[in-house]
Amino acid sequence: MLNFDFPRLAAIGLTPALLQQALAQAGDGDLQLARVCRVQRDCAWVHDGEDEHLAHALPGIHAELAVGDWALCQPREHEPWRLLERLEPFNQLVRVNDEGARQAYASNVDTALLVMGLDGDYNPRRLERYLGLAAAAGVAPVVALSKADLCPDAEARLAELEQRLRPLPPILLLNGTDPACREALRPWLGMGQTLVMLGSSGAGKSTLSNTLLGEETQAVGRRRWAG
Ligand SMILES: Nc1nc2c(ncn2[C@@H]2O[C@H](COP(=O)(O)OP(=O)(O)OP(=O)(O)O)[C@@H](O)[C@H]2O)c(=O)[nH]1
Ligand SMILES: [Mg+2]
Fold first, then answer.
1. With 0-12 CB in 10 A as exposed, 13-18 as middle and 19+ as buried, what is 186?
2. Which of 126, 207, 211, 224 to mutate for ligand 1's pocket (most ligand atoms within 8 Å of CB)?
3. Which domains does the chain have, with CATH numbers?
4. Do the record's keywords include Protein biosynthesis (predicted)?
């Protein structure tokens, strides 16, 4: 039997269509529907709407996993959960790396927040590539121009992008350290909405994320390995 508490899981992005798919795939056994929130080389963490749980999948399934996937899991006491099946996502943000391999950033995404700093990071052509990546996945883009507080030409750059980008996405001028960001991004941060931030190292993703969450969950200003 599949265990699910729809309101609890809808709050972390479950849709009726994904639930239908889960019910069709579940079969027998005491299974829990959960969302993948972290993927490492040989393990993953899933969220059941209340807590995170370490989960292990068979290698073939593990290789397919991306953050944001929904999965059928077998919960276990004091042991990692078993992640038995991955549900087909309704969309997936993907890039093709230099060797031509497909790499998934995230699955089941409502909004791609493209973060670009109005410092040396400002690069409209790179932004257009990110917009192409979002369009290819069918994910709605929003552009966040961070470090607006440091840039005297912020309005001129906004105008340049408004002239250049077609179709024109929403573009926001932000100071990622200012709590006013929460109000500016409110339309894309409703209950159950999934927003993914994309942008170069140093663009201000962690800063913005900490400001939106109101707590320091992300290390800021440190270069680290990233996919
Ligand atoms: N003044 C100002 N500083 C910012 C703003 N956004 C980010 N910063 C600073 O820019 C630096 C890099 O910001 P991060 O948030 O760490 O950048 P990131 O995009 O998470 O970078 P990676 O984790 O390497 O991908 C930090 O020193 C931040 O304090 C902003 O809007 N205004
Ligand atoms: Mg960061």
1. exposed
2. 207
3. 2-86 (2.40.50.140), 92-213 (3.40.50.300)
4. no
* Rounded (5°) CA angle 165-202-103: 70
Q: Is the CB of 176 under 6 A from ligand 1?
A: yes
* Ligand 1 centroid – CA 52 distance (Å): 27
- Between helices 124-137 and 154-164, what is the axis angle to 10°? 50
Residue 212 CA: which ligand is closest? 1
Question: Using a 6 Å cutoff on CB, does residue 150 contact ligand 1?
Answer: yes
Give residue 131 CA to ligand 1 midpoint distance, Å.
21
Quick check: CB of 184 below 6 Å from ligand 1? no
The 3-state DSSP class for residue 110 equals coil
CA pair distance 184, 22, nearest whole angstrom:
35
**Tens-place pLDDT, residues 53-62:** 999 999 999 9
Please check whether residue 116 is in contact with residue 143, taking contact to mean a CB–CB distance below 8 angstroms. Answer: yes
